[in-house]
Amino acid sequence: MDAAAVRAWCSLALEALGREREEIDAINVYPVADGDTGTNLYLTAESAAQAVEAVFAAHETGRSAPSLADVMHAMAHGALIGARGNSGTILAQLLRGMAERIGTGDQLAGALRRAAEMAREAVAHPVEGTILTVAAAAADAAENTPSDALHAAYAGARAALDETPRQLAILGRAGVVDAGGRGLLAVLGALVEAVSGEAPAAPELSAVRPALQARAVEPCEGGGPAFEVIYLLEADDEAVAGLRTRLDGLGDSLVVVGGDGLWNVHVHVDDAGAAVEAGVEAGRPYRIRITHFGAQAAEPAAEPRERVQRAVVAVVPGDGLVDLCDQAGATTVPMRPGEPPASGELVDAIRRAHAREVVLLPNDASLRHTAAAAAEQARAEGVRVALIPTRSAVQGIAALAVHEPDRRFDEDVVAMSAAAGATRYAELAVAERQSWTSAGVCQAGDVLGLIDGDVAVIGKDLTDTALTVLDRMLSSGGELVTLVLGDGVSAVLAAQLEAHVREGYLAVDTLVYEGGGRGTPLLIGVE
């Protein structure tokens, strides 16, 4: 086991969960039959894989490779901040437990044991016949066969998974194994393949789908709580202990994982507001997600609709641009500050577009790999996808402006790509701390002007910095300036910039949009 093996493990686990996601979703009946366990595990693993790739990227410019401990901790941290649902949260804690031991000289069996113990401790009321049982069985088997702990762990987990319908009545009635445990088996199988080079035979899942479809399990079967609440929480250990007690009295399926001041909180409740308020009292909750289990069931069944020929899917920062892109006919994926969409969200948007052909606009350089993964998955589902690697929302706007759905697909993609490629982009940001940049040293509070992704201007005033950036961009020519104003930015700034362009650059037009994005005061595009 080394850093490269962990990297391969992440990639293979993501591939396996992506391949089996729909089947795992189909057998999800516990603790709530909401059919999303496979998706939640995939998104959790994707966040872990992205964190690992970031560690390797940080070492590319240096001569040293990341250590095993560094990569394992990155994997665990990525899973923690990206954990989705009950099973995803438990998977994050399992990886945290393994990270504590791997890289410190402990053997695989010890790492699996610590992982199983920590996961069980994180669940308020552990139940047998779940992912916890499968994790414990993997650790037991590894300890009993130290000479071949890896394959023994997988075999032990698979045997335990087969027993889950006899341990948990709801699984037995449905005729399925535990969905979370099945996802964990896929992750362990990926570990076997990463280390040994041989992929173990996975159990067949397709046979369970007809049984579930015949039962027509409703999301709120059993009269459980109406909402799933999950958030990240910055708090100390003492506050989290009190939070556990309070949330346990509010609902069920309580899982609190993490440590060192950062926690992922998951609970099912009827009063979602009270669950969030409890987090506010304990510390600082953020990335709050509230899901109403009965929302989909309450909606009337829609008539099957015919696929449209072509659609555009765009990642968009800010409500104002969401409205603009919606009006242009695009299916939008909101980009929240500090919370980039995962590939699963992009795939869901492609499905919502319900088209035979889709043009995907990520509109952010950091989403390059995420968008590529989403495009690949959508292609596997029979959708023709063209990914235009737009690196800013202003490039996406330029591409949308020339989109013509009646044109041949290839011609439309070429025209949209050309429009995006001909648009230089810039953004203004406020420095949070002192740091080195390509334009020199900046101090906290300085206004940074980034052109094509690199810091080009450091200033003290938003207007002056914007004017300098605009002049630099227009020095090489241009016909159209696009300005996207963030939240709290006065229209006076836009008027000043418009007047500056009108007076100094003949035949250059200006368009202004209220973007509504948080964190970025101004986006500039020059075509």
Overview of the structural elements:
It is a single chain. The protein is of the alpha/beta class. It contains 20 helices and 16 strands. The chain has helices at residues 3-26, 37-58, 68-82, 85-101, 108-122, 131-144, 149-167, 169-174, 179-196, 208-215, 237-250, 272-282, 295-298, 319-327, 343-353, 368-380, 393-401, 409-421, 462-474, 491-504, and strands spanning 227-234, 251-259, 262-269, 284-292, 308-316, 331-334, 355-361, 384-387, 424-430, 435-437, 440-442, 447-451, 454-459, 480-485, 509-514, 522-526. The strands form four sheets. Strands 13-12-9-16-14-15 form a six-stranded mixed beta sheet, with helices on both faces. It has a four-stranded antiparallel beta sheet with strand order 2-3-1-4, sandwiched between helices. A four-stranded parallel beta sheet has the order 6-5-7-8. The longest helix has 24 residues, at 3-26. The chain is globular, with a radius of gyration of 25 Å.
Sequence of strands across the biggest β-sheet: 13-12-9-16-14-15
Structural class determined from secondary elements:
alpha/beta
What is the makeup of the main sheet? 6 strands, mixed
Strand content: 15-25%
List low-confidence stretches. Answer: 206-222, 296-302
Into which percent range does the helicity of residues fall?
40-55%
Overall pLDDT metric: 86
Name the overall outline.
globular
Please tally the β strands and state the result.
16
Using the CA coordinates, give the radius of gyration.
25 Å
Put simply, the count of helices is 20
| Termini separation | 50 Å
